[in-house]
TrEMBL record:
A GO molecular-function descriptor: transmembrane signaling receptor activity
Assigned keywords, A-Z: Coiled coil, Membrane, Transducer, Transmembrane, Transmembrane helix
SMART domains (alphabetical): MA
Taxonomy, superkingdom: Bacteria
Gene3D superfamilies referenced in this protein's UniProt entry, alphabetically: Methyl-accepting chemotaxis protein
Sequence similarity: Belongs to the methyl-accepting chemotaxis (MCP) protein family.
Stored PANTHER family: LYSOZYME-LIKE PROTEIN-RELATED, METHYL-ACCEPTING CHEMOTAXIS PROTEIN MCPB
Entries under Pfam families matching the protein: 4HB_MCP_1, HAMP, MCPsignal
GO (cellular component) term, any one: membrane
InterPro entries (UniProt xref): Chemotax_Me-accpt_rcpt, HAMP_dom, HlyB_4HB_MCP, MCPsignal_dom
Protein name: Methyl-accepting chemotaxis protein 4
Record-annotated HAMP domain positions: 209-254
């Protein structure tokens, strides 16, 4: 059984535990939710179908008793004051009766309600008769009907209370069933959680004990143990990974052991080689000393050549800088000339447009003078009409004088016409004066406009001449710029060649100095090499001793023998 449990993965067990918990929680939640809904529905039904009808029956009985009391009071006092109250009680009974009928009724409830309505209607009819003519027989019948009504209402109320008790019992039974179901689910969930947790504990305990035992042997240096495990859980994966690590470390220790043996052999070889190197380094030191002297003389010659080339390079750099400045200035002049050319062209167009506008303005002012002349003709015509009109009142006054009293009204009209004619004449004369002033001003404006137009034409010609000069300047600059560019390129090429020469000479000088310095260093190093070879020989002996100790330490590990 335990061997099978070893194949269970912890991840699978934990996921099973989590899924079981989620399922149990969801089941408990759903059952609780639906049972709460059922309980809420049962409570609503108890309220609307049982409690409200019982209250309605109680209210009907209460109002019926009030009607009885008012009837007794009326019969004793022979007063009509209770009729209004009796009517209110009847309305209340009708209202509660309708409310009761709105609820869900079974056949027995419907029968009680029908019996009550029939008996109640008979009761009301007898009460009306009793108010009209009272008799002992009517009173007796009323008492019987009252008894029947009370019996019906009492039975109906008792029946409603029985139904409410039954529904309460059903709700309690549903509650007990829900509690039992929740308890069963809870017990099952706890059982499943316990089983899965127990399995996890067993798997972890057994697998961890096996791994700890094997790790203790590895810690003691025993690499012959096999850590392979066929278990499929996480501990099996860790054991297989650890076995791979053990195998790799074992191979590394074997390699270290083999390498230590090789180092021991090479240390002995190194000791013999170091003695041969001592004699060779002495010969090399003497040869390098002669080379160092020759390089010193060559280095001095190269240094003087480099100084002369540097002076020549400085002169070339000044020439290149001056050519570059000339090139920049010529390009700036070209750009400014082109910009001025564009602006002059724009100015020419503006002057031409202004000249056209002055021509249009002159034409319009001339047209205005002609129209003002026509206005003057019209005012002259109006003056003639007013002079003719002045004659009409004179003739009318003469005719009115001849007519005597009958012509007085005509004389008044003639006088008014004369006044209007004089006013028209004055107005036309004023218009004529204003028109003459406008014509004179217009003539002056036209003359001034013509003078300005002539000046604009002269300015336009001057601008055209300046524009032509700028175009010639631009053409000349465009011819000069390519030549300056060619000179600039040649100077830059010369500058680059100069730099290359200086760099090569400097490099040669530096190489010569480096050779001299290196030869001196080699000479010094050869002397140090003589000393070092002795130390190497000593170090080889020390290394041989260290490798022997390392081999002894490596042999403490127990390793698997490799089959050949």
């Amino acid at each position: 059984m335990l061997s099978k449990l070893k194949n269970f993965r912890l991840k699978t067990l934990i996921m099973s535990l989590t899924i079981s918990a989620i399922i149990a929680t969801l089941v408990i939640g759903f059952i609780g939710y639906f049972n709460m809904m059922a309980l809420d529905k049962c409570i609503n039904e108890m309220y609307s179908e049982r409690l409200i009808p019982v209250a309605d029956v109680g209210n009907i009985r209460s109002n019926f008793y009030q009607i009885k009391i008012e009837g007794i009071f009326t019969s004793l006092t022979h007063s009509n004051d209770g009729d209004a109250k009796t009517k209110t009680y009847k309305e209340n009974i009708d209202k509660y009766l309708k409310d009761y009928e709105k609820s869900t009724m079974d056949e027995r409830e419907a029968k009680y309600i029908n019996d009550f309505k029939l008996t109640y209607n008979s009761f009301l009819e007898l009460v009306d008769k009793l108010n009209n003519s009272s008799s002992a027989e009517n009173i007796k019948q009323i008492e019987q009907l009252e008894t029947e009504i009370e019996s019906i209402l009492s039975d109906l109320q008792s029946y409603d209370e029985e139904l409410a008790a039954t529904q309460k019992k059903n709700a309690y039974d549903a509650y007990r069933a829900n509690v039992k179901l929740m308890g069963i689910i809870y017990i099952l969930a706890v059982g499943i959680f316990t089983i899965i947790s127990y399995i996890i504990i067993l798997v972890v305990d057994k697998s961890s004990k096996e791994m700890i035992t094997k790790l203790e042997r590895v810690a003691d240096g025993d690499f012959t143990i096999s850590l392979d495990n066929n278990s499929k859980n996480e501990f099996g994966l860790m054991t297989r990974a650890l076995d791979k690590t053990r195998s790799n470390i074992s191979n590394m220790i074997k390699s270290i052991k083999s390498t230590a043996d090789n180092i021991n052999v090479q240390a002995e070889t190194l000791s013999s080689v170091s003695e041969e190197m001592t004699s060779s380094s002495q010969n090399v030191s003497a040869a390098i000393y002669e080379v160092s002297k020759s390089n010193e003389a060559q280095s001095l010659d190269l240094y003087s050549i480099s100084s002369e080339l540097n002076k020549f390079g400085e002169e070339i750099e000044r020439i290149v800088s001056d050519i570059k400045e000339i090139d920049d200035n010529s390009r700036d002049i070209d750009a400014m000339a082109k910009e001025s050319d564009v602006k002059l062209g724009s100015l020419v167009r503006s002057v031409n447009n202004l000249s056209i506008s002055f021509d249009n303005f002159t034409e319009k002012m001339n047209a205005l003078g002609i129209k003002l002349g026509k206005i003057n003709d019209i005012t002259n015509y109006i003056n003639n009409i007013s002079r003719q009109t002045n004659l009409l009142p004179l003739n009318a006054a003469i005719e009115a004088a001849r007519a005597g009293d009958q012509g007085r009204g005509f004389a008044v009209v003639a006088e008014e016409i004369r006044k209007l004619a004089e006013e028209s004449k004055e107005s036309s004369e004023n218009i004529s004066k204003i028109t003459i002033d406008i014509v004179n001003d217009t003539t002056e404006i036209v003359d001034s406009t013509n003078m300005m137009n002539n000046e604009l034409v002269e300015q336009s010609e001057v601008i055209h001449m300046a524009l032509g000069s700028f175009k010639k300047i631009i053409s000349a600059i465009e011819i000069v710029i390519p030549k300056i560019d060619e000179v600039n390129l040649s100077a830059l090429g010369l500058h680059e060649e100069k730099n290359n020469i200086i760099e090569k000479v400097s490099s040669t000088s530096a190489v010569a100095e480096e050779i001299t310095s290196s030869s001196q260093e080699i000479a010094a190093s050869s002397e140090e090499l003589n000393n070092s070879t002795d130390e190497v020989s000593k170090s080889a002996l020390a290394l041989n001793s260290v490798t022997i100790k390392m081999i002894e330490e490596v042999n403490k590990f127990r390793l698997q023998e490799v089959s050949v």
